[in-house]
């Protein structure tokens, strides 16, 4: 039972953190007739591919003892949510991505609330801690970055959940962000705050507030020139994404599953039932 719970948590984390584009591509690969829908077995294959992209998923791949083969993988609560009790329903990419979006929202909200926000805001240092979690930054440099943030925001105004969510939406698209920034670099432009906001609008369709950009630059602009290099920002955020897929956040399995249950109730049940 412990193995099953651990696997369920890992599937949940993969679903919550994997960029939507990855799932969209995988869905299209298994949508053989092009009708925009996949059945339960096809979805299991999509999940298997997504999990194989992380070392955690690879450790459990095709092990009957973990219930992670296509046949025994039905223990996943997700399949019941998406395909109904008889597992004969159909799942569309649109409905799945909406479920994933709300799931990511709820997981981030849990992490935000864990910092005990005051008047709906967390401190700049708390936001910095969220960004640097699993970043792989060495402890000495990490301490220096946190000290730099404290220096800049002794009496900060804090950040709202919307500001935090917009920035994390931006980060979920970090590979596309990297591609977009490469064009700026080829054109001789640097990554300043205005450029970051423009890339966020173009790639992630979100607005980054001036304040959230101020916090990010205070944290990552080590030489204080008002610009970020790939080494200073993008590479660290890529490491964060990969490490975050492999190390569980300290939010508790129960609360994570509650978030998934809430999403399932709100978004999945209507389209999980077999079509008449």
Automatic annotation (TrEMBL):
CDD domains: EFh_MICU1. GO terms for molecular function: calcium ion binding. It comes from the Eukaryota. Keywords: Calcium, Calcium transport, Ion transport, Membrane, Metal-binding, Mitochondrion, Mitochondrion inner membrane, Repeat, Transit peptide, Transport. SUPFAM superfamilies: EF-hand. PROSITE patterns: EF_HAND_1 (PS00018), EF_HAND_2 (PS50222). One of its GO terms (cellular component) is uniplex complex. GO terms for biological process: calcium import into the mitochondrion; mitochondrial calcium ion homeostasis. It is found in: Mitochondrion inner membrane; Mitochondrion intermembrane space. Pfam families: EF-hand_5, EF-hand_8. Its main location: mitochondrion. Residues 18-53, 208-243 form the EF-hand domain. InterPro entries: EF-hand-dom_pair, EF_Hand_1_Ca_BS, EF_hand_dom, MICU1/2/3. Heterodimer; disulfide-linked; heterodimerizes with MICU2 or MICU3. Homodimer; disulfide-linked. Component of the uniplex complex, composed of MCU, EMRE/SMDT1, MICU1 and MICU2 (or MICU3) in a 4:4:1:1 stoichiometry. The composition of calcium sensors within the uniplex complex can differ depending on tissues: a MICU1 homodimer can be present instead of the MICU1-MICU2 heterodimer in skeletal-muscle and kidney. MICU1 is recruited to the uniplex complex by EMRE/SMDT1, and it associates with MCU at low calcium levels, occluding the pore of the MCU channel. Associates with the MICOS complex. Belongs to the MICU1 family. MICU1 subfamily. This is Calcium uptake protein 1, mitochondrial. It comes from Macaca nemestrina (Pig-tailed macaque). The lineage of its organism: Eukaryota, Metazoa, Chordata, Craniata, Vertebrata.
